C-alpha cells in the first residue's frame, strides 16, 4: 500500500471483530493478529450464514485493493478526517453522527421535490438534462446527482473521454469529475473502461460501454458526412416571410425610383455640362431641365416621358462603374472624355447591330433612399443622335441583396398598357 | 463525535485556499425535511402581504328592485326609473354588468400566519443542511461547477469590502460568477399585471452571502443581480429556500460559519444563542436503506427468504389423467398400451384410395368378426343378378356358432 492511498477505516462495533485493531491489523497483514482474526471468523461461520461473512470480507478487500487513488489529480490533499462518506464504509454509526451526503436522501428530494434537470415533456418518459447522465433518463440509477459514485462517457470534438466521480470528491465541485481520454481504437477503449471501472457497479460499467459504442458510431458517421460535398456547403434556409417582404420592397423601391426621369435628368445634365461636346448639335438654352415645362424640350432630344409619375427631386449623385468592355472599343466614338468623367459604356447584349454613331450608355442611377433600396443600371440606345433614347434594359440591384438583379423592360410595360 | 465531522477549508479573496480550516458545524448534518421547509416557506410568504379589498359600496349603489314574474324578463333586480340606458338594466348580481362581485373582498381576511417557533427553526436548519450538499444545489439550478468547495467559506476580509468592483472580482475568483451570469441571462419582463405595478422585471436568484459583521459587505454586494445578503444571526428561510425548494448556493464568511455551532448547537450541546434549542433528531441515523438491508447485522437475524411457496394442489382425476393413474396403479399403463396397440393393429393411416379401401376392408372384417363373436346374425349381401327384368337376390345366411366371446 502506497502512502498516497487513503484507507478508510470503518467504524465497527465491538461484537463483530472483537477489538477493532484486529481488523486493522489483518489489513496490514500482521501474522499473529491474522491468526486471531481467522479464528474468530471460523467461530462465526459456524453460527451464521457464511455467504454474508464472505461478502463483507470481500468488500473489505475491495476497499484496500481495488481502490484507485486519485490524489495525483488533486491540487490539495483530501482532508484527513473525512471519513464520513456514504455508509459504504460505515454500516452503523452512533446516534446523531449522520453523514452529510446520503444518496437516498438526495434522490428523495430530487424525485419528489424539485430538480432543475428534470424534463418531463411526455407522460411516459422523464428525461434528465444533466450533461453527465449516462442514459439520458431521470432515473434512480442514472441520476448523476443522486449517485455519489458515477461514470460517463462523453464526446468532445471527436475524442471520447471517460468521466468518473467518487464520493471522496463530492464536496469539491471543481475537481469532482476525473477525465480520462479513451483510446481511439474501440476495442482498446472498451478495455480501458473495464480497467478503470473494474469494481464498479455493473450498471454503470455496462452503460458506459454502450455509450462508447453509440458515440463511436456517431463519430464515424460524422466523419463520413464531412467528406461529402454537402458538408462543405453551408446551407442557409430561405426565410419565406423575409423573401416575400424583400421582393415587395424592391418593387416599391423601383417604382419610387423614377428611373426614366432620372435618366432624363442625368442626360440633360450631361448635355448641359458639355460632356458630349459637339456630338449633338442643338442649342443648349433650348434644353431645359424643368420636366414640367414640355415646350422647352427640344424635338431632337426627346426623352421618354413618364406617364404621370412623380418627379424625382433628389439629387443624383451618379457613380460611374468602371466596367469597360474591350470588344466594343471600335464602336465608341467619344472616348476622349474618359479622362474627364469616367463614363461607363457597356455593350448591349440585346442589339447587335451597331451603326457607328450609336452611343450606348449605361448609367448608374441611385434610387431614392439609396441605402435601403439600391442602384438602377440603365442601358439605353439610340439609332442616331437625332433619335430618341430608347431604354432597352433596366436593371435594379438592391443594396441588401448584392447578387440579385431585377430586370425591367419599359417597352413591355408600355405595350401592356 | 468530532472525529466524524470533516474540516472545511477557508478560501481567501483570490480563490486560493488559506491554510486554515473550520470544523463543519453540526447544522449541516440535520435532517433535510423538504416537507417542513415547503410548509413553513408557504406560511412565511404570506406575512409580507398588504391588505386589499374591494369597496363595500361597489355595485350596491343602486335602488334596483326586481320586476317579479309576469313581465317576460328574468327576475334579477332592475334599475328603476327611465330616460337613460341604465334604467331597466340588471343590478346587484355578480352576473350583472355593473353589479357587485361575488363575495366582495374584505380587509379582515387573515393575511398573516403564525408558525410555531420549532417548525420555523426546523425548516431553517434543514435549508442550511441542504445548502451543504452539492447535488441539491446543482438540482436547484445554480451553476457551481467552478466552485472549489461546498460549503464555500471565505475569509473574514470579505466583510470589509467596500466596492462593488471588488465584490465582483471576488466572485469571479471564487468561481461563483457563472451563477451570476445565469441571473443576467434570466432577466425578463414579468408576465401579468405586475408589470404596471412597479414589478416589471424578474430574474433568478443567485448566491447568498452570509456574514457575521457588516463592515461594508452589504453595500458592496447589494447591487450585483441575484445576490442576497444575510446576517448569520438573522437567517431568513425565504432567502435560504426560495420558492420553497431547498439548496440555494451559499457563500459563508469564516466567522459566520464558526457561529453556526453556537447558534444551532450540536446534538451533544444545546444552542447558546437561541433559547432552549437543539438540532432536531433524525428519524434514522443511517438512511442508506440499500446498504442497511445488505448489512451483516441485519441479514444474520433474518430467516431465509421463501423462494418457492407451496400452494394448494388441484386434485386430478386418475381415470382421465394417465400419469396420475400410473402413479396409483403402474399396470394401468401397460393395459392402456395394449388396448391402444390392438386398436391400431394393421390399421393403415394412409389417405390414398388403396389405403382407404384397405382400411375399410379391415374395418369390415373387424366388425364382422366382432359381431360373430358377439352372436349376431349376419346377412351377407351379394350382388344382385339381373335376369331379364327380374332381379333375384341371393342371400346367404350364416348362422353363427354360439361361442363365448372372449
From TrEMBL, chain A:
<keyword id="KW-0812">Transmembrane</keyword>
<dbReference type="InterPro" id="IPR029004">
    <property type="entry name" value="Ribosomal_eL28/Mak16"/>
</dbReference>
<dbReference type="Pfam" id="PF04874">
    <property type="entry name" value="Mak16"/>
</dbReference>
<dbReference type="GO" id="GO:0030687">
    <property type="term" value="C:preribosome, large subunit precursor"/>
</dbReference>
<keyword id="KW-0539">Nucleus</keyword>
<protein>
    <recommendedName>
        <fullName>Ribosomal eL28/Mak16 domain-containing protein</fullName>
    </recommendedName>
</protein>
<feature type="compositionally biased region" description="Acidic residues">
    <location>
        <begin position="289"/>
        <end position="335"/>
    </location>
</feature>
<feature type="domain" description="Ribosomal eL28/Mak16">
    <location>
        <begin position="105"/>
        <end position="218"/>
    </location>
</feature>
<dbReference type="GO" id="GO:0000470">
    <property type="term" value="P:maturation of LSU-rRNA"/>
</dbReference>
<dbReference type="InterPro" id="IPR006958">
    <property type="entry name" value="Mak16"/>
</dbReference>
<feature type="region of interest" description="Disordered">
    <location>
        <begin position="283"/>
        <end position="335"/>
    </location>
</feature>
<keyword id="KW-0472">Membrane</keyword>
<keyword id="KW-1133">Transmembrane helix</keyword>
<comment type="similarity">
    <text>Belongs to the MAK16 family.</text>
</comment>
<feature type="transmembrane region" description="Helical">
    <location>
        <begin position="21"/>
        <end position="39"/>
    </location>
</feature>
<dbReference type="GO" id="GO:0000460">
    <property type="term" value="P:maturation of 5.8S rRNA"/>
</dbReference>
<dbReference type="Pfam" id="PF01778">
    <property type="entry name" value="Ribosomal_L28e"/>
</dbReference>
<dbReference type="GO" id="GO:0005730">
    <property type="term" value="C:nucleolus"/>
</dbReference>
Automatic annotation (TrEMBL), chain B:
<feature type="domain" description="Large ribosomal subunit protein uL4 C-terminal">
    <location>
        <begin position="276"/>
        <end position="345"/>
    </location>
</feature>
<dbReference type="GO" id="GO:1990904">
    <property type="term" value="C:ribonucleoprotein complex"/>
</dbReference>
<keyword id="KW-0687">Ribonucleoprotein</keyword>
<dbReference type="InterPro" id="IPR023574">
    <property type="entry name" value="Ribosomal_uL4_dom_sf"/>
</dbReference>
<comment type="similarity">
    <text>Belongs to the universal ribosomal protein uL4 family.</text>
</comment>
<dbReference type="Pfam" id="PF00573">
    <property type="entry name" value="Ribosomal_L4"/>
</dbReference>
<dbReference type="Pfam" id="PF14374">
    <property type="entry name" value="Ribos_L4_asso_C"/>
</dbReference>
<keyword id="KW-0689">Ribosomal protein</keyword>
<dbReference type="GO" id="GO:0006412">
    <property type="term" value="P:translation"/>
</dbReference>
<dbReference type="InterPro" id="IPR025755">
    <property type="entry name" value="Ribos_uL4_C_dom"/>
</dbReference>
<dbReference type="InterPro" id="IPR002136">
    <property type="entry name" value="Ribosomal_uL4"/>
</dbReference>
<dbReference type="GO" id="GO:0005840">
    <property type="term" value="C:ribosome"/>
</dbReference>
<feature type="region of interest" description="Disordered">
    <location>
        <begin position="383"/>
        <end position="406"/>
    </location>
</feature>
<protein>
    <recommendedName>
        <fullName>Large ribosomal subunit protein uL4 C-terminal domain-containing protein</fullName>
    </recommendedName>
</protein>
<dbReference type="InterPro" id="IPR045240">
    <property type="entry name" value="Ribosomal_uL4_euk/arch"/>
</dbReference>
<dbReference type="InterPro" id="IPR013000">
    <property type="entry name" value="Ribosomal_uL4_euk/arc_CS"/>
</dbReference>
<feature type="compositionally biased region" description="Low complexity">
    <location>
        <begin position="385"/>
        <end position="406"/>
    </location>
</feature>
<dbReference type="GO" id="GO:0003735">
    <property type="term" value="F:structural constituent of ribosome"/>
</dbReference>
